[in-house]
Amino acid sequence: MRQLWLRHQSWLTPALLLFLPVLLFGTVIVASAVQSVWFGFFDWDGTGPKTWVGLGNYRELFGDPQFLVSLKNNVIWLVLFLLAPVIGLALALFLNQNLPEIRVVKAVFFIPLVLAHVIIGVVFAWFYDPTFGLLAMAARAIGVTPVAILSNEHLVTFGIIVAALWAQVAFCLVLFLAGLSQIDHELVAAGRLDGATGWRLFRFIVLPQLKSVTFVSAIITVIMSLRNFDMISVMTQGGPYGRSTVLAYQMYDATIFSYRAGYGAAIATVLFAIMSIYIGWFLVHTLREERRRR
């Protein structure tokens, strides 16, 4: 037995170490995803008997005006959330300085990272309050009538996105600060000797060394933009009149409050497909760019 172990240790050790994580991933993630797709073909309240409806849930879904609103909001979230890596990188470049006082400034920027999204949602709901919120006080101070952002169907989605961006920018900031600490300073010095300064130094020397960090930051930001739920639940519960609802919250509302688990599973399947298509495209595009540069 010992001889067998020594002979195959090179692959048995990683296989044994990976067995339990792979089993848990397959059971909790993969099996649940497959089961959710399967439930999307049934009319089911979540507890009673299931009735096969085939593509009925999907036909109803694509004819549902609320689904179109949720889908539009998801697109808005995706586009605006991609500002997080850009802002995070800009802040990281600013904070990446060897100054004693910069530590205090970094601590201020790190605050959103240690706060739960629910807490951030509650704080921003107070901030937006048109009667006693800080935004209302500032508006009155300059003689402007306060706007009830979370009650305005045209502004509510953007108000929630600003709150969510505050936390996501902090996450991207930490990633880029870690990436900047690992760059090769000899390459930076060589670039300066060759006359590269400012934008050219950043574009051709620093940014290529942050490719992996940028990739991770962009992927996680996209995933967070498509699966946003907690901020909407705390700040508006999808209101007013469903104008701030996204696919994740519509899925929750249909499953929990309308007792339509099959319909909610269909929404989850569509959201999963959108996320998979975008991430797949991003991966292919990134790999192609990597091959061209080589």
From TrEMBL:
PROSITE patterns: ABC_TM1 (PS50928)
Transmembrane segments: 12-34, 75-95, 107-128, 155-180, 201-226, 261-284
Location (main, coarse): membrane
Protein name as annotated: Sugar ABC transporter permease
Recorded family membership: Belongs to the binding-protein-dependent transport system permease family.
Coiled-coil residue windows: none
Keywords per UniProt: Cell membrane, Membrane, Transmembrane, Transmembrane helix, Transport
UniProt xrefs under Pfam families: BPD_transp_1
A biological process term (GO) from this entry: transmembrane transport
InterPro entries linked to this entry: MetI-like, MetI-like_sf, UgpAE/MalFG_permease
GO CC annotation: plasma membrane
Annotated organism of origin: Ramlibacter albus
Membrane topology: Multi-pass membrane protein
Every ABC transmembrane type-1 domain range: 70-284
Subcellular location: Cell membrane
